[in-house]
Amino acid sequence: MKKWIMLTLSASVLAACQSTPTTTQTPTTANEPMHSAELPTTESAPVASAKIDTVDHLLNPELIAPVPAPVVKEVTPQQEADLWQRIRRQLTMHVPENDRVSAQRNFYLKHPAYMDRVAKRAAPFMHLIVEEIEQRGLPLELALLPIVESAFDPFAYSHGSAAGIWQFIPGTARQYGLEINWWYDGRRDVYSATHAALDYLTDLNNLFDNWLHALAAYNSGGGRVSSAIRRNQRAGKPTDFWSLDLPRETRAYVPKLLALADILRNQDTYQVSWLAIENQPYLTLVETETQIDLALAAEQAGLELEQLHHYNSGYNRWATDPEGPHRLLLPQQNAQRLQQWLAASDSRDLVRWSRHKVASGESLIVIAKKYHTTPQAIQQANNIRGHLIRAGDYLLIPAASRDLDDYSLSADQRLSATQSRQRGSYKIDHTIVPGDTFWDLSRKYDVNLRQLAKWNGMAPTDPLRPGRKLVVWLSEDDKPSGVTRNIHYQVRSGDSLARIAQRFNVTIGDIEKWNQIKRSNYLQPGQRLKLIVDVTRMTNDI
């Protein structure tokens, strides 16, 4: 009986093998193993052998060769599509969880629109900044520093006389090779200032061997940070950044950068995303050996003048400096057009020229002001060594090809826009006279000193040049009556020019001018001073 049953099972298995189709079929899923019956055969085999192979595979699936998993090539940070992700993957600084970092992080998280505006400003420049940081092997957190410094505004100017996206003050800028003159301010040149800023930061880190100390020193100066470290060492206190007694601005400055880095590194946790920036070079350098009119450059490159000037915010005027060479940053396609034009042009085609007949009494300075250029540019264009020119002579003057109002991002036009911005109900135009200071003028008009400087695109410590016009904004209640009176004031015991100026709401410079005296002169009791005062703005204790 048992023998008959075994023969029956063998026959059934053999019948199943003989009736199986020989065509190959596709598995229903990628992970479902093929059975041996689905594999194509290349030669005849004994039925018994086929039966044994089939049964073995059916009873032992592990004998089937595993299907290799697809190879996924890892994307490097440099291959990321979004430049923020390229930065994100290379952030290395430790971010502590403390109140100072939390406060700054909360500010940025509550203002996503602000961060989008910053990203738009950063978009043309961020790639070249990241490339330079990577080439130097510096922390990628430094790419976020212009957000803290200037919100990526190339025309930013602080109350401390710092300019550009990296906020250089004049002394440090010149120390690191940035030129500042009438035509050009290297602090606002994003390309040059980026190299200078990274040089400076590298030097500071070499000095302190600590990036947080270096960042603090970038903000408040290496000497101040060194002094704070020495004080803590003498007192037996820790010398890490968080333990140092530093100015309030610096104590918040480093946490701002760390907060930004933390938000970017953990953006999924915070559920935020910054406006994407394509991880591709956006701007290309174009070299020019001689002076070039920015309007002509924009025209030949196929760009709007304001757009070209924004990319090249270091240029103060309608053209580059007559002394070359210079560089311009332009989008790649526009750069190619400009390079082709430059290659086919003569250097004298890069600016427009005016023929000027020297009038009697004219000097190079007078002529230069008329054409919005410099005496040196006229001398260079006409091969004049000295300053002597004669009436009747003809001079070739490099001049703007368009109306100066069209150069909206030049220093003069930006100042005009700043001064025209409504800040109060009533505007006064004040012409600076020798001896004027922001302090005197703020007391005279009863306005905040920093606001007065800001209304005029200046810092409180900037020098006031005689003849320059300042605007003063007043509320309706402070509007002067226009009623002035000449009075003669008799100096009292204990009087000083400052006290008299405050009493009559005038400036020390005004008193000096009206009386032909200097503030270094001692006032004598009984001495009479001439004053021109607005009777509605005098104090009551005359």
UniProtKB/TrEMBL annotation:
Pfam families: LysM, SLT
A GO molecular-function annotation: lytic endotransglycosylase activity
SMART domains found in the cross-reference section: LysM
InterPro entries: LysM, LysM_dom_sf, Lysozyme-like_dom_sf, Transglyc_AS, Transglycosylase_SLT_dom_1
Residue span, LysM domain: 354-397, 428-472, 487-531
One GO cellular component term noted in the UniProt record for this chain: membrane
Compositional bias (Low complexity): 20-29
Alphabetical GO biological process terms: peptidoglycan metabolic process
Region Disordered, annotated ranges: 20-45
PANTHER family xrefs: LYSM DOMAIN-CONTAINING GPI-ANCHORED PROTEIN 2 (PTHR33734), MEMBRANE-BOUND LYTIC MUREIN TRANSGLYCOSYLASE D (PTHR33734:SF22)
Family: Belongs to the transglycosylase Slt family.
The protein's name: Lytic transglycosylase
